[in-house]
Design brief:
Radius of gyration: 22 Å
Family: Belongs to the nitrite and sulfite reductase 4Fe-4S domain family.
Bound molecules: iron/sulfur cluster
InterPro entries: NIR_SIR_4Fe-4S, NiRdtase/SiRdtase_haem-b_fer, Nit/Sulf_reduc_fer-like_dom_sf, NO2/SO3_Rdtase_4Fe4S_dom, NO2/SO3_Rdtase_4Fe4S_sf, NO2/SO3_Rdtase_FeS/sirohaem_BS
Keywords: 4Fe-4S, Heme, Iron, Iron-sulfur, Metal-binding, Oxidoreductase
Largest sheet: 6 strands, mixed
Pfam family, one: NIR_SIR_ferr
Helix content: 25-40%
Number of helices: 11
GO molecular function, one term: oxidoreductase activity
Strand content: 15-25%
Shape: globular
Length: 517
């Protein structure tokens, strides 16, 4: 190890911390060929958790030995060979299931240990990796999914995201963080990267320095969801884009060396920032970076929640990018192959993924847009979805997730279908469903958040139910949604939501959103 683990002397380290000191999480990647050769039963139970560092979780029930794999997609940018490789993995090993996550990554299910070496080989051949996609490590870096095409972004951030991502990939100096660690880097003026809910975010900023207007970043730190959500706060600093990696390393070093390691539920960077405040954090940051200029102006206009439906002009004249809905973020492998073919025929082969679990096909010449849209797949994966289906987000849920209490994806899809049949509104309502108090589906920032739980019915049987939360947004500084009274049994959920939305429709002014209401 190139660095001193100063926290290792702390007697109050939790059990996971002690295990991480005994074996670095990334080392599991070296063990996988042995386990693949010898089968699932050769993996000691105490090693199961370390598979997260390889981007692998055991899906439910763990004893069956099937893995979920998350693949990093920095900024959500995928080339045609990458899309085809991912589709091939889903088809050959993942029973065809291809999920887009709320951090632009791709998830597979049903993988067996014997298959992992070949999957790693296929990913590596096209420059993809699942290393660090889970675990107490820097996760995939969220970015502007239209960077490089975006007529309004301050500057192209694709190379910066790649530089920062490459630095942290399989870097054992930063593979033992106190908890998961999420970065975003974007200069999209509609906050497409959901800056405030990341541990640390680089966001668009301008500042006049020596009479010259400079474009760069502000730094927000300490955001995160789960049971105790926090919005990231802005550090009083202006960051030259050329110093992004240096600052990212400094922030990560502070988290690694000063983050809390006694109680896992209090270990995220957000808790350190909540205790220190951003002023103290800046002082510590400057011990690594030297003095940083104070912050400038933030040109962010509004929040688009990562939605890009429709046909849009790119900054390159004559080219368009098209935003499509992927219902609850799930495609099958054949659809992904088809999208790769189409993106190659009409665009440059790229596909981009969004935080909203949707996708973008860029670089389509204007005169080819109609022909592209006539392809049959775009009857389901549409640029103009029905309102509720088009704004329905869901986590993995009980189908595969060990922590889940309830079904999510299919239920969210059914809820959206029914609401589209029964209610018409003049504004979209973003609805996010999660299967437990964790927040993979980012329930807290939804107009309507639905959080699953188990309750007893009158007959004392355990049934699936949901709490309803309303009014979340990242507009105007951001606010998390608030819980309504009661727990709604799954079978009553649709009717309760219809009543709630009918009330909203009757009482609101024209154009008024859930946040304004
Ligand atoms: Fe699983 Fe909970 Fe995350 Fe949903 S929010 S995927 S149920 S851990």
């Amino acid at each position: 190890m190139a660095y001193v683990k100063q926290w290792a002397e702390n007697e109050k380290l939790n059990k996971t911390e002690i295990a991480k000191l005994e074996k670095d999480g990334l080392k599991i990647i070296d063990d996988i060929p042995y386990y693949a050769e010898n089968g699932f039963d050769s993996i000691p139970k105490e090693q199961w958790d370390l598979f997260k560092w390889a981007g692998l979780y055991l899906q439910r029930p763990k004893e069956d030995g099937y893995f979920m794999m998350r693949v990093n997609v920095p900024s959500g940018i995928l080339t045609k060979p990458q899309v085809e490789t991912l589709a091939g993995i889903a088809k050959d090993y993942g029973r065809g299931v291809f999920d887009i996550t709320t951090r632009q990554a791709i998830q597979f299910h049903w993988l067996e240990i014997q298959q992992i070496p070949d999957i790693f080989k296929r990913l590596e051949a096209v420059g993809l990796s699942s290393a660090g996609a889970c675990g107490d490590i820097t996760r995939t870096i969220v970015g502007n999914p239209i960077t490089g095409l975006d007529p309004d972004e301050l500057f192209d951030t694709s190379a910066i995201v790649k530089e920062v991502y490459d630095y942290f990939q399989r870097n054992e100096d930063f593979s033992n963080l106190p908890r998961k660690y999420k970065l975003s880097i974007s200069t999209n003026l509609k906050n497409a990267s959901n800056a405030e809910i990341n541990c640390a975010s680089f966001t668009p900023a301008v500042k006049v320095i020596d009479g010259v207007e400079k474009k760069g970043f502000h730094l927000k730190v300490g955001g995160g969801l789960s049971a105790r959500p926090y919005l990231a706060q802005t550090v009083d600093a202006f960051i030259d884009p050329e110093r992004t990696l240096e600052v990212a390393i400094a922030v990560t070093t502070i988290f690694r060396d000063y983050g809390y390691r006694e109680k896992r539920h209090l270990a995220r960077l957000k808790f350190l920032i909540a205790d220190w405040g951003v002023e103290k954090f800046k002082e510590k940051l400057e011990e690594f970076t030297g003095p940083l200029p104070s912050k400038g102006e933030e040109p962010v206009e509004e929040w688009n929640a990562g939605y890009f439906y429709g046909v849009h002009d790119q900054k390159q004249e004559g080219l368009k990018f098209l935003g499509f809905n992927v219902p609850v973020g799930r495609l099958d492998a054949e659809e992904v192959f088809e999208l790769a073919r189409i993106s190659g025929k009409y665009g440059n082969g790229e596909i981009r993924t969004c935080n909203s679990q949707n996708l973008i096909i860029p670089n389509v010449p204007a005169e080819m847009v109609d022909e592209l849209l006539a392809e049959p797949i775009f009857e389901r994966v549409t640029i103009n979805p029905n309102s509720f289906m088009g704004h329905a987000v869901s986590c993995t849920g009980i189908e595969y997730c060990n922590l889940a209490l309830v079904e999510t994806k299919e239920r969210m899809r059914h809820v959206a279908l029914e609401l589209d049949n029964r209610i018409e509104l003049d504004v979209p309502v973003r609805m996010h469903m999660v299967g437990c108090p964790n927040s993979c589906g980012q329930r807290q920032i939804a107009d309507i958040g639905l959080q699953g739980m188990k309750v007893r019915n009158k007959e004392k049987q355990m049934i699936e139910a949901y709490e309803i939360y309303v009014g979340g947004t990242l507009n105007a500084g951001g606010q998390f949604n608030e819980k309504l009274k009661g727990k709604i049994p799954a079978e009553e959920l649709n009717d309760v939501l219809v009543n709630l939305l009918q009330y909203f429709k009757a009482e609101k002014n024209a154009g008024e959103s859930f946040f304004d209401f």
